[in-house]
């Protein structure tokens, strides 16, 4: 199951683990990504907390924890090759994984069709 | 928020939109920050081949004398470079000073070929009105400043700029760095200067506004030329360590503090015949408290304008005034002001990025070699 937020994050849910990245639409708007600051494994976030930072050539943007939980893994490949966010936003360019604290939070999020409509507006 | 309807448009606005430029407000104009190619590729293309920039938002003006006196001599009152010695067709990078010896703006001054020694100046878009006011006030009644409102300005920058432009007008190959002349381009009389602000060889071309669109299209039709937006313009000028007005100086910094003392004329320093000379001569003799330096962050995180610079003890000692990612360098680069004690190359400092201290070093500039075409 993949869900989307209004902040242009995607959340792929597998059991109680959520993998989080930014959407293709978001990477396209940001432009060339040159640096990603990832959270620490073990850090706990509430929904909407600042969890990561993605820097394009021009500017820095916050990435929020779309769902409450504890970081179980980060994509260290982004440290060596931040451009994975551009080339593979929804796959190799994932940011971090969270152990989901409250799966009810997923209910409010958009599915793929709703997100497509959202970015079309 | 800026109302986009109130933004000014350059004669190339429609072309920018047609090319897919992402238009943003900049200095009161709607300007392309990037095209579909993206900032990184635009930057690299300019370093490898040739980039075309619309700089029509910048201010072009003539300064003329009413009484036969040399207008450029008068400009020397507020500009500390050796300008009066310029021969026709020669130009110089200089700064506009205030009474306190602070830099109000930087600009290019050219002596044209007109017999009255007319000056042609190009000032930054954001400070056009302020600069014109300052110049007019300081010039007195015997000089006129005439903004050239009906001219567009294009910059063609990069190692292939010469070969591209020479296909249209072979004589541009004969211009040396910081030389300018009238050139007929496709039947239209234009003003071509061999200069720019990317660290590359290249030209700035002043054309009648009605010719701008056709001429830009002609250049873009060349396989070596891509349209380049403001994003790459910024990283291209940062890598050679070039100052950005309003950021790397803001009216308070002197040319000595800004580390651009090269623009001070030798004889002008001896004569001290410009406003703010007291401070500037004192700083040259005794040194300055703070100095603009290059900063190389050790990690990959860019340090943007406004980032605090701290010493090993955690005390904030300065601030980044320009910073970002240098595509040619392949990593973050920055410049900022630090106390003179910290200005030596290799001095270790910390940059406070998002609350965390990131190690960095004071570094020599330019970060990327300047490749201007000087005559041998």
TrEMBL record, chain A:
- In this UniProt entry, the residues modified to N6-lipoyllysine are 58
The record, for CDD domains, names: GCS_H (cd06848)
Q: What is this protein called?
A: Glycine cleavage system H protein
Q: How does it assemble?
A: The glycine cleavage system is composed of four proteins: P, T, L and H.
Taxonomically, the superkingdom here is Bacteria
**Described purpose of this protein according to its UniProt entry:** The glycine cleavage system catalyzes the degradation of glycine. The H protein shuttles the methylamine group of glycine from the P protein to the T protein.
Q: How is the cofactor bound?
A: Binds 1 lipoyl cofactor covalently.
Q: What GO cellular component entries does it have?
A: cytosol; glycine cleavage complex
Q: Which gene encodes it?
A: gcvH
Q: Which organism is it from?
A: Temperatibacter marinus
The protein's UniProt keywords, in alphabetical order, are: Lipoyl
Q: Which NCBIfam families match?
A: gcvH, PRK01202.1
From TrEMBL, chain B:
Q: InterPro entries, alphabetically?
A: GcvT, GcvT/YgfZ/DmdA, GcvT/YgfZ_C, GcvT_C, GCVT_N, TrmE/GcvT-like
Q: Which GO terms describe its cellular component?
A: glycine cleavage complex
Gene from which the chain derives:
gcvT
| Tagged with keyword Transferase | yes
Query: Per the record, what are the reactions this protein catalyses?
Result: N(6)-[(R)-S(8)-aminomethyldihydrolipoyl]-L-lysyl-[protein] + (6S)-5,6,7,8-tetrahydrofolate = N(6)-[(R)-dihydrolipoyl]-L-lysyl-[protein] + (6R)-5,10-methylene-5,6,7,8-tetrahydrofolate + NH4(+)
Gene3D superfamilies for this protein: Aminomethyltransferase beta-barrel domains (3.30.70.1400), Aminomethyltransferase fragment (4.10.1250.10), Probable tRNA modification gtpase trme, domain 1 (3.30.1360.120)
Q: What class of enzyme is it?
A: transferase
The EC number(s) this enzyme carries: 2.1.2.10
Q: Which GO terms describe its molecular function?
A: aminomethyltransferase activity; transaminase activity
Q: NCBIfam families, per this entry? A: gcvT, PRK00389.1, PRK13579.1
Where along this sequence does the record place binding of substrate? 204
Name of the protein: aminomethyltransferase
Give the range the annotation lists for the signal sequence. none
Q: Name one GO biological process term.
A: glycine catabolic process
> Domain Aminomethyltransferase C-terminal spans what residues?
293-368
């Amino acid at each position: 199951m993949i869900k989307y937020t209004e902040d242009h994050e995607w959340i792929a849910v597998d059991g109680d683990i959520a993998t989080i990245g930014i959407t293709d639409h978001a990477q396209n708007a940001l432009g060339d990504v040159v640096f990603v600051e990832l959270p620490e494994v073990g850090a706990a976030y509430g929904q909407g907390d600042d969890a990561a930072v993605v820097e394009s050539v021009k500017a820095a943007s916050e990435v929020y924890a779309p769902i409450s939980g504890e970081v179980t893994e980060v994509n260290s490949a982004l440290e060596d090759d931040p451009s994975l966010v551009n080339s593979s936003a929804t796959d190799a360019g994932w940011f971090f994984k969270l152990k989901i604290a409250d799966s009810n939070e997923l209910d409010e999020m958009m599915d793929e069709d709703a997100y497509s409509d959202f970015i079309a507006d | 928020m800026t109302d986009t309807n109130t933004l000014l448009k350059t004669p190339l606005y429609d072309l920018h939109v047609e090319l897919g430029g992402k238009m943003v407000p900049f200095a009161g104009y709607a300007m392309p920050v990037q095209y579909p190619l993206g900032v990184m590729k635009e930057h690299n293309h300019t370093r490898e081949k040739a980039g075309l920039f619309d700089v029509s938002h910048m201010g072009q003006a003539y300064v003329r004398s009413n009484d036969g006196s040399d207008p450029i001599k008068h400009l020397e009152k507020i500009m500390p470079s050796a300008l009066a010695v310029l021969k026709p067709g020669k130009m110089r990078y200089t700064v506009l000073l205030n009474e306190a010896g602070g830099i109000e703006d930087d600009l290019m001054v050219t002596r044209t070929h007109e017999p009255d020694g007319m000056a042609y100046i190009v000032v930054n878009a954001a400070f056009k009105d302020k600069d014109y006011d300052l110049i007019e006030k300081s010039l007195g009644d015997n000089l006129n400043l005439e903004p050239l409102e009906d001219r567009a300005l294009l910059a063609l920058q990069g190692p292939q700029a010469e070969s591209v432009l020479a296909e249209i007008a072979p004589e541009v190959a004969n211009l040396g760095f910081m030389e300018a002349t009238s050139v007929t381009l496709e039947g239209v009389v234009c003003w071509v200067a061999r200069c720019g602000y990317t660290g590359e060889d290249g030209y700035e071309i002043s054309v009648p506004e009605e010719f701008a669109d056709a001429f830009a299209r002609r250049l873009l039709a060349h396989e070596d030329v891509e349209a380049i937006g403001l994003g790459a313009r910024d990283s291209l000028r940062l890598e050679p360590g070039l100052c950005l007005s309003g950021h790397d100086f803001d009216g308070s910094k002197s040319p000595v503090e800004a580390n651009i003392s090269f623009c001070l004329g030798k004889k002008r320093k001896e004569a001290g015949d410009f406003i703010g000379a007291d401070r500037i001569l004192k700083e040259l003799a005794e040194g300055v408290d703070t100095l603009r330096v290059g900063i190389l962050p050790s990690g990959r995180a860019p340090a943007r304008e406004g980032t605090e610079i701290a010493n090993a003890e955690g005390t904030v000692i300065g601030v980044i005034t320009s910073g970002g990612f240098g595509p040619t360098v392949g990593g973050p680069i920055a410049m900022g002001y630090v106390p003179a004690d910290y200005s030596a190359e290799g001095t270790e400092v910390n940059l406070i990025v998002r609350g965390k201290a990131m190690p960095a070093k004071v570094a020599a500039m330019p970060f990327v070699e300047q490749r201007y075409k000087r005559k041998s």
